[in-house]
Design goal:
Helix 6 packs antiparallel against helix 16, helix 9 packs across helix 10 (about 190-205) and helix 17 packs across helix 18 (about 485-500). By secondary structure, the chain is an alpha+beta fold. The radius of gyration is 32 Å and the shape is globular.
């Protein structure tokens, strides 16, 4: 500080401030009980983790993709090629890799299909960004470029590649269902299952008050029964419950049914644990027992007097209480799943009743709580007895009964049919489709390359990298089909370049991959179609996930505190206390 004093030209107050600043910066440091990594190391780590996750699901993409077998710690086996299911069952520890697993779940919830491709695109965008960062391009520039490229891509899809579903006629939904199933275990029987899926979707769709078409696929119940072949799966009009009536003396069919959906048990009421009844007179003991029985009887009579003739409950009904339903000629079904009851209540207009107590503290059951259906019947379908609720008044419902060789096969069939139902639902609601087979990605790649060269800013390189990342989908599809990816993707790009530069060849914009024969074809003509919403959402989600990971430049990992007990026997011996 003496050197500073000798040459300091300003007032002494400034000197003091300067000395304080120098002291603080040189002596003060933060101590962390953990490790800290920052800059390029973190970005490369995150990119490597994301690519590792993408490589797991990469080989399952497309109509000739392969399945994964996942075995958990208990030994339960899952065989699937659904991206969301694979990533949900993996125990991922790396925080950046977890982002991609959550991304697949988000795509599954929002769209229902395209879970594998969204993860692959996000990982490829990160790989491209890592290359640019190594060339000393700032992450903010890359993020801005990716956002602009995503916005332009969505605009291009909606203006040039989207096809109105009405233009393609009634086969549009069938083709969308077939395309969704082509990569699944039931791909060989896709014509049969596509008909089942479209039939169910047509039954449950309705037009709301705004004039929009809605297709609530939750009103379609999928039941699984192993045995027989997959082609013996059936559609049942009505909601199927995997339950039977409580007693064989009850009627097996009731027309003009009034449904009561109850979320409590109708069993002889017992005193709560720890409650004791002290009786002076032994003759009154029987009266106590009788009152216990009467409490439940009063509840049952309240429900029956309201006009209910079909009672569905999530709890149990004991034999003594079944007697009252048999005498009234009503049908009682016990141990129903709560999820099933909620759906039946929604479809029939019933209210799921959790308690009979009203606001006055008394017990009552209003006729308004009842739902209505044309018929409730117990039928033998396949090998099991099922309860069918037909002709529900509020909303239509349908059920699919899947048959298969074993539980693993039937579970994968269930996932495949669900994905296909989701794809059909999106087309019914958005009324727009795009060609599949790598067509959209190849068109975007050419368009974005040309768009990038028209920009005079630093974002040009990021957009060019985004364009290159789009090609990962057609390349992966071709590699999984055991064909030459370099040649086929080059041909595909040539077709799309011609469609965007030569007016006479505009129809080439529908060209996609034919993976069975290893050539390019018109996928609009071939009926390889996907919901437009699926492509748009997967692009948006993949870009957002890549940007989220790209923003990270510092990772602080706190060490877990030691859980060792200082007063344990081993520590006491070690310290000489014992």
């Amino acid at each position: 500080s003496s050197g500073i004093n000798a040459e300091w030209p300003l007032r002494p107050g400034y000197k003091l401030y300067f000395e304080l600043a120098v002291t603080m910066t040189t002596t003060q440091s933060i101590s962390l009980f953990g490790e800290r990594e920052k800059g390029e190391t973190v970005r490369t780590q995150n990119m490597t983790a994301a690519v590792a996750i993408a490589n797991i699901v990469k080989s399952s993409l497309g109509p000739v993709g392969l399945d994964k077998m996942l075995v958990d710690e208990v030994g339960d086996v899952t065989v699937t090629n659904d991206g969301a299911t694979i990533l949900k069952l993996l125990e991922v520890e790396h925080p950046a890799a977890k982002v991609l697993c959550e991304l697949a779940q988000l795509q599954d919830e929002e769209v229902g299909d395209g879970t594998t491709s969204v993860v692959i695109i996000a990982a490829e965008l990160l790989r491209g960004a890592d290359e640019l960062i190594k060339q000393k391009i700032h992450p903010t520039t890359i993020i801005n470029g990716y956002k602009l490229a995503c916005k332009e891509s969505v605009k291009f899809i909606q203006e040039n590649l989207a096809i109105p579903a009405a233009e393609l006629g009634k086969n549009c939904l069938l083709n969308v269902a077939k395309t969704s199933m082509s990569s699944k275990i039931i791909g060989s029987d896709r014509d049969f299952f596509a008909n089942i899926v479209v039939q169910c979707a047509e039954v449950v769709k309705f037009t709301n008050t705004k004039g929009d078409q809605k297709c609530p696929i939750k009103t379609i119940n999928i039941l699984k029964a192993h045995g027989k072949s997959a082609r013996e799966s059936t559609v049942v009009k009505g909601y199927a419950l995997n339950c039977t009536v409580g007693s064989q003396l009850m009627p097996k069919s009731i027309k003009n049914a009034k449904l009561a959906c109850i979320d409590f048990s109708l069993q002889k009421s017992k005193m709560k644990l720890g409650v004791q009844v002290v009786v002076d007179d032994p003759s009154k003991l029987e009266a106590v027992r009788q009152r216990e029985a009467d409490i439940t009887k009063e509840k049952i009579m309240l429900i029956l007097n309201a006009g209910a003739n079909v009672i569905l409950t999530t709890g149990g009904i004991d034999d003594m209480c079944l007697k009252y339903f048999i005498e009234a000629g009503a049908m009682a079904v016990r141990r129903c799943k709560k999820e099933d009851l909620k759906r039946i209540a929604r479809a029939s207009g019933a209210t799921l009743v959790a308690s009979l107590s009203n606001l006055d503290g008394e017990e009552s059951f209003e006729p308004a709580f009842l739902g209505a259906a044309d018929e409730v019947v117990q039928q033998r379908i396949c090998d099991d007895e099922l309860i069918l609720v037909k002709g529900t008044k509020a909303k239509a419902s349908a059920s699919i009964i899947l048959r298969g060789a074993n539980d693993i096969y039937v579970d994968e069939m269930d996932r495949s049919v669900h994905d296909s139902l989701c794809a059909v639902k999106r087309v019914i609601e958005s009324k727009s489709v795009v060609p599949g087979g790598g067509c959209v990605e190849a068109a975007l790649s050419i368009y974005l390359e040309n768009f990038a060269t028209s920009l005079g800013s630093r974002e040009q390189l990021a957009i060019a990298e985004f364009a290159h990342a789009m090609l990962v989908i057609p390349k992966t599809l071709v590699v999984n089909a055991a064909k030459d990816s370099t040649e086929l993707v080059a041909k595909l790009r040539a077709f799309h370049n011609a469609s965007q530069t030569i007016e006479a060849k505009r129809q080439f914009k529908w060209i996609g991959l034919d993976l069975e024969n290893g050539k390019c074809r018109d996928n609009k003509e071939a009926g390889v179609l996907e919901p437009e919403m699926s492509k748009v959402k997967s692009l948006k989600f993949a870009t957002e996930a890549a940007i989220t990971i790209l923003r990270i430049d510092d990772m602080i990992k706190i060490y877990q505190p030691s859980k060792e007990d200082p007063n344990s026997y081993a520590n006491a011996v070690k310290s000489g206390r014992m």
